[in-house]
Design brief:
CATH architecture of the largest domain: Alpha-Beta Horseshoe
CATH topology of the largest domain: pyruvate-formate lyase- activating enzyme
Strand content: 5-15%
InterPro entries: Aldolase_TIM (IPR013785), BchE-like (IPR051198), Cobalamin-bd (IPR006158), Elp3/MiaA/NifB-like_rSAM (IPR006638), HpnR_B12_rSAM (IPR027564), Methyltransferase_Class_B (IPR034466), rSAM (IPR007197), rSAM_sf (IPR058240)
Radius of gyration: 22 Å
Number of strands: 17
GO molecular function: cobalamin binding; iron-sulfur cluster binding; metal ion binding; methyltransferase activity
Number of domains: 2
Bound molecules: cobalamin, iron/sulfur cluster
CATH class of the largest domain: Alpha Beta
Shape: globular
Number of helices: 20
Distance between the termini: 43 Å
Keywords: Iron, Iron-sulfur, Metal-binding, Methyltransferase, S-adenosyl-L-methionine, Transferase
Protein name: Hopanoid C-3 methylase
CATH superfamily of the largest domain: tm_1862 like domain
Pfam families: B12-binding (PF02310), Radical_SAM (PF04055)
Length: 514
């Protein structure tokens, strides 16, 4: 069969700081190609809608699938599916990925028969069976994880091993367009899947049933050897949770003489616990690290149910600095923030050398705060659920809130434009643009003001919206049932590839008990 796998357009943040390959979609495409299907990938983060339509007319795919990792992309996917249905009335159209798994019924309904089914959970575990069932006219909703308007199959299952299916990276045409900051160009890779913690604002753990699985160091190193890009974005939610695994990958990389530069995301307490691992990684090319601090005071951390103390967070930053790793911190701005609160954050951010990123508290389906936050949503427009817009009532008038937010983001952005930074930047630009003709990083420097703009953000709220997300049906601590949040059913300790000490460490640093 001919399968076309499509990633939707970039959201706000990705229009400036980074653009990364759609790894999940590439893995799904890889599984289908291994099964002898003729597969193409089309990435709308780079390409245009009109080129998508030209492609489907010439390629005439039997099946088209869309990557629904981001809630904010759902209206675009529904509209694309509707037009595609008119052009190719007999093709199978399906959507899979993180966010769409949590709102499957709703998206099917809103598509008005344009989307045949939603694939919940891991796509590579079921895509081949799905294509076969479509060919043989077997009812799709009998398959695990598949939801159609006629019903839903059994719970989705996991792939046997993360080592078996490699992403079809070679199917992307413009690989030089993917980058993160100065890692330009950059490829993405997955070392482990899932997260054993259970933060209330996050759905990474509910998607995978609080499991944590690792790929083998050998398979990872082999994959790295095949990647041409010098920069590597490690997509794991929390990198190097398990020290031995991180160390074994580093050893394999050293043994094979692989030379790359890496970016990863982790937690402050994991960094402090596994100092040696991060030290070794700084020696083999770890350049950038993203730590989700979420709040800068104890009250804020308590609100986010993170058991890590502020002292630990600052100690982690200090340690990363000592290794020469550039750290970016994420702070979550709550809609209740006042002008004074924004000012405190700006001052704090100027006092530290790290890059600070700010996002807005956003309840997402699949998170605890979606069901428990008693504040009513002020908008149900999917497109605004991108953590750059306020979807809950703001204490400041909305325009003031955005002015303060963007001013804070500007202060953070400009901080890295001092004389020394400009001099360093000049060196980097020389290397990227003049020596290697790589333009992504250079272009990103001038894009900030055109994308992050308070008037534009207000205007985004005024756009007419055709598809609205339904609010959570239960907003109560008493009736809230955590088990309903999961996409892959939790199967406890055995689903986590962690040694007992690490399992205990995770338990001590997460808030809830199973
Ligand atoms: C890497 C990553 C990114 C990369 C994106 C790379 C890309 N182009 O896709 C970057 C850093 C750019 C990014 C940015 C953002 N991200 Co992000 N990101 C992640 C992260 C950590 C891992 C995703 C990943 O690659 N995993 C590895 C691959 C193998 O897994 P996967 O993509 O989930 O794919 C599997 C399944 O989902 C499924 N699947 C996926 N696609 C498809 C398609 C089909 C057809 C099928 C059948 C199956 C299928 O099968 C795959 C294989 O098993 C997730 C957290 C998570 N654990 O999912 C957050 C996450 C997806 N991001 C999130 C958010 C909020 C954002 C931003 C909005 C944040 C911001 N700062 O503004 C932006 C928006 C980016 C955009 N779309 O323009 C949220 C999503 C929230 C939501 N409900 O919408 C998540 C869940 C994080 C979280 N815990 O809240 N992100
Ligand atoms: S540590 Fe918390 S915020 Fe980070 S991925 Fe895990 S559950 Fe989400």
């Amino acid at each position: 069969m001919k399968l076309l796998a499509v990633h939707p357009s970039a959201l706000m943040y990705t229009r400036v700081f980074l653009r990364l390959e759609p790894l999940g979609l590439e893995i799904v495409a890889g599984a289908a190609r291994n099964d002898a299907h003729d597969v193409k990938i089309f990435d709308l983060q780079i390409e245009k809608h009109k080129d998508y339509f030209t492609l489907i007319r010439s390629f005439q795919p039997d099946a088209i699938c869309f990557g629904g990792n981001y809630l904010a992309n759902i209206p675009e996917i529904i509209d694309l599916a509707r037009t595609t249905r008119r052009i190719l009335p007999h093709s199978l159209i399906f959507v899979g990925g993180h966010s769409v798994s949590f709102v499957a019924d709703e998206v099917l309904r809103q598509s008005n028969n344009a989307i045949d089914c939603i694939v919940k959970g891991e796509g590579e575990a079921i895509v081949c069976e799905l294509l076969e069932a479509f060919e043989k006219k077997i009812p799709l909703h009998t398959l695990p994880g598949i939801v159609t308007k006629d019903g839903e199959g059994p719970a989705p299952h996991f792939v046997k091993s993360l080592d078996d299916i490699r992403p079809a990276r070679d199917l992307l045409q413009n690989r030089h367009k993917y980058f993160i900051g100065t890692l330009d160009p950059a490829a993405s890779i997955e070392f482990a899947r899932g997260c054993p913690w259970d933060c209330m604002f996050c759905s990474a753990w509910t998607f995978y049933g609080r499991s944590y699985r690792t790929a083998s160091p050998k398979a990872i190193a082999e994959e790295l050897e095949h990647i041409e890009e010098p920069g590597i974005f490690i997509v794991d939610d929390v990198a190097f949770v398990h020290a031995e695994h991180g160390m074994a990958i580093a050893n394999e990389i050293k043994k094979r003489g692989i030379k790359k530069e890496y970016y990863l995301e982790t937690r402050g307490d994991v960094l402090l616990r596994n100092k040696e691992v991060f030290k070794v990684w700084s020696e083999i090319g770890l350049r950038y690290m993203f730590i989700g601090m979420e709040a800068v005071d104890a009250e804020g951390l308590k609100q986010f149910r993170k058991r890590i103390s502020l002292d630990q967070n600052f100690e982690a930053l200090e340690y990363a600095r000592s290794l020469g790793i550039m750290v970016a911190i994420n702070i979550i701005a709550d809609p209740s923030w006042t002008k004074e609160r924004f000012e405190t954050i700006r001052q704090w951010c100027l006092e530290i050398p790290e890059i600070v990123n700010i996002s807005v508290t956003t309840p997402y389906p699949g998170t605890e705060i979606w069901h428990k936050d008693k504040r009513h949503l002020t908008t149900r427009d999917y497109r605004l659920f991108d953590i750059q817009h306020a979807v809950l009532p703001t204490t400041l008038p909305l325009d003031e809130f955005y002015k303060e937010l963007v001013k804070t983001q500007q202060v953070m952005n400009m901080k890295h434009m001092g004389w020394q930074a400009v001099a360093d930047m000049f060196g980097i630009l020389w290397d990227k643009v003049v020596r290697h003709n790589q333009w992504n990083f250079a272009k990103s420097i001038w894009k900030f003001n055109s994308v992050f703009n308070p008037q534009q953000q207000i205007a985004d709220h005024m756009r007419p919206s055709r598809y609205l997300i339904s609010p959570p049906d239960e907003l109560s601590d008493k009736t809230f049932n955590k088990n309903k949040l999961y996409i892959h059913a939790p199967s406890g300790r055995k689903s986590r590839t962690l040694d007992d000490k690490t399992e205990k460490f995770v338990d001590a640093t997460r808030m809830a008990t199973e």
